[in-house]
UniProtKB/TrEMBL annotation:
Domain of life: Eukaryota
Family (UniProt): Belongs to the short-chain dehydrogenases/reductases (SDR) family.
InterPro entries reported for this sequence: NAD(P)-bd_dom_sf, SDR_fam
Record bears the keyword Oxidoreductase: yes
Sample GO molecular function, one term: oxidoreductase activity
Annotated keywords: Oxidoreductase
Protein name as catalogued: Short-chain dehydrogenase/reductase family protein
Organism this protein belongs to: Favolaschia claudopus
Length: 350
């Protein structure tokens, strides 16, 4: 572990994965295989490399994460709500790495029915070692899902919460004395842009719910990203050390999300994109997609995080000092967890 390099702003996903290749591939050993008239050795494998990544369309951080991990992991499950784009991602990964073991899973995180259907299709999995919540809804105009939930909250928090609950038995199955499964949330430094966490922006109900008249896209986004950070802390606590949660900021990265028509006006108003729809590189230090995906891979596999459950990462390293106090607050985490259970009408206990 001491020989691992330090990562930084400019480190790419490929560089991180190469350094952590042994962790991604798994651990091998040798045992004596009886009975036999001869001394016979066989290899045994304790793979820690079944990974599921949400939101893996080409041109995004999730795709880059999957592309790189597919070179080392025993199985990479990629998800998306569009079958055609999902197939394009699978084909692109396999073209680069023909030996990659890729499994596709249709998943619309804005639909509770789709989440349940997708989770049921993973019943054949013996174990899941790393679950990466990368998918996110566009930061755009007010929109309700088919479940009558605000779109950003549903896709970025409520859906991942339910998906984690449904897959928790698979995660727990991978818990060994030598390995603790991980759940990773791709959050944002924007979580710290609000002075206090407002749980009602994420899982408000009744008169406290966000409506079209009260909706502010960036206010909801910032609170949802704060919820991601809180979930990493709370999953670690509630699992009693059997699952480690981590959250991260990938940095300012120009991806396919920035190119969606519904997001354009908001991102231009914020100055993130210019009038031409391109990144405002004179105002912000943008990363490339490979640089942005590096922190996700660190959160998923760096063994130096083993004794840091709930940590928040940035620039491919632990950055708890930049995490807002409200997103590490136990009372906020408890309230968020409980109100999310109420929205879903079911409990989530490890």
């Amino acid at each position: 572990m001491s020989s691992l390099p330090e990562f930084s702003f400019s480190t790419t996903a490929d560089e991180v994965a190469a350094a952590l290749a042994a962790e991604i591939k798994g651990k091998n050993g040798i045992y004596l295989a009886p009975p036999s008239n001869l001394i016979q050795f066989r290899r045994w494998s304790n793979p820690i490399s079944t990974v599921l990544i949400t939101g893996t369309s080409i041109g995004g951080i999730g795709f880059e994460t999957a592309r790189v991990l597919a070179k080392y992991a025993s199985l990479v499950i990629i998800t998306g709500h569009n079958a055609e784009r999902l197939k394009l991602s699978e084909d692109a990964i396999k073209k680069e790495t023909p030996t990659a073991n890729i499994r596709t899973l249709l998943l619309d995180l804005s639909s509770l029915e789709s989440i349940r259907t997708a989770a049921a299709q993973l019943e054949d999995l013996d174990a899941l070692h790393v679950l990466i919540h990368n998918a996110a809804a566009p930061i755009g105009p007010f929109k309700l899902t088919r479940d009558n939930l605000e779109s950003q909250s549903a896709t970025d928090h409520i859906g991942p919460f339910l998906f984690t609950r449904l897959l928790s038995p698979k995660l727990l199955s991978s818990n060994k004395t030598t390995f603790t499964p991980r759940v990773v949330w791709v959050s944002s430094s924007a979580h710290a842009s609000v002075p206090a966490f407002d749980v009602n922006q994420v899982v408000g109900m009744g008169k406290d719910a966000v409506t079209e008249g009260t909706y502010e896209p960036m206010k909801v986004y910032s609170n949802v990203k704060a919820a991601n950070v809180l979930m990493a802390v709370e999953v670690s606590r509630r699992s009693g050390g059997r699952v480690n949660g981590y959250s991260l900021c990938p940095g300012m990265v120009y991806t396919n999300m920035h190119q969606k028509e519904e997001s354009l006006a908001t991102l231009q108003t914020l100055g993130i994109l210019g009038a031409d729809g391109k990144p405002s590189t004179d105002k912000f230090a943008f990363k490339t997609i490979p640089q942005g995906a590096s922190t996700t891979i660190v959160a998923a596999f760096d063994p130096r995080l083993d004794d840091q459950p709930g940590a928040y990462l940035s620039n491919a390293a632990i950055a708890n000092e930049t995490r807002a106090a409200h997103s590490a607050d136990a009372a906020n985490a408890e309230r968020l967890w409980t109100q999310t259970e109420e929205i879903l009408g079911e409990k989530f206990a490890f």
